[in-house]
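DM from R.C. (forwarded with permission)

"hey, sorry to bug you on a friday — could you get me a structure for this? deadline for the figure draft is monday and I only need the backbone to look sensible"
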Amino acid sequence: MTTLSDVIEALEAAYPPELAMDWDAVGLVCGDPSEPVSRVLFAVDPTPDTVDEAITGGAQLLVTHHPLLLRGVHGVGTDTPKGAMLHKLIRAGVGLFTAHTNADVADPGVSDALAGALGLTVEGPLEPLGTPPAEALDKIVTFVPVGPAIAAVHDALAGAGAGRFGNYSHCSFATAGTGQFLPLDGAVPAIGRVGKLERVAETRLEMVLPRSRRRAVVAALRAAHPYEEPAFDLVEMAPLPTARGLGRVGSLASPEPFSAFTERVAAALPDTAWGVRGAGDPDREIRRVAVCGGAGDSALGTAAKAGVDAFVTADLRHHPASEHELAGAGPHGPAPALVDVAHWASEWPWCAQAADVVRSALGGSVGTTVSRRRTDPWTTAARSSAEPNPEASP
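My reply, with the result:
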């Protein structure tokens, strides 16, 4: 029997909750992890429509990208829209699970699904996530006189948490050199005497440590080192880029005009009242593209530096888009053309990706369905035929 816990395990392996932004609310919203699950519905939004679809379709779990309870609430009474949905789910025995910003930066994640829908071959993330903060590293470099002190300092640093990698401890690198110092009045040198320039055969000792152990390692060095004032360097290691991160950069199999590329985007995504808008020369050749599922105008600057021909995202605002166009060509080439799509449409391809995650992990024991209900909040659109009135006040 497959349980809700089994489905959660599969989803959290693909979209680790620790990748979520600290302001986000991801994971199980309601449901009993021990209850059996035979069908799961996937949708972008938890709305009355998708809740009804899950219940009438016989699903025991609704998985959405957007959280229902993103901001703090003081109650979930049925006299509130969100409370009413929660009560309806609970009464029907249907759980609710959310993967939001953790799915945005996962590998693969929301932007991989968008890139795949557009026919792009993905090269990597637009904004790499880098090493998680909990794994941030320092490197300590110190200089120890040749002799028994080397082993004592090495052991003290290792005991404080430096030099550990996986199943190995005491990892270090040592090189020989010559240290020099001149003890001044008031000094109590372990080697040499006041007023005389001293040169000493020393070993340069290097060890990596978790940043969280910085204070303990420096204290251990000072306690174990024979010198009154031990010399050392403490260097923050740069985070290592990974395949995780916001957005994706990819390439089309062959270049095409921007007008045709805009049509490609419209054909690949579900229809919305918002539609698809392009900003750029219709004849510009498009080959290399950046995408960001959801609101991505915060990544406009990164896209411009990525050397891409076009940037596809949602919720682009007037002023950032205008300023982006005004910037023109920069050190990384011409500013990319912009394609603005509906937020919901840009994230909808992820639903199929998440469904594949569950199918791959649990096989035929769980049926999966992707909701085709359009939960985009914009429902109608009209085009004006009126010309701008130059006499109208701004």
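R.C.: lifesaver. The mean pLDDT is 93.
me: no worries. The two ends are 65 Å apart (CA to CA).
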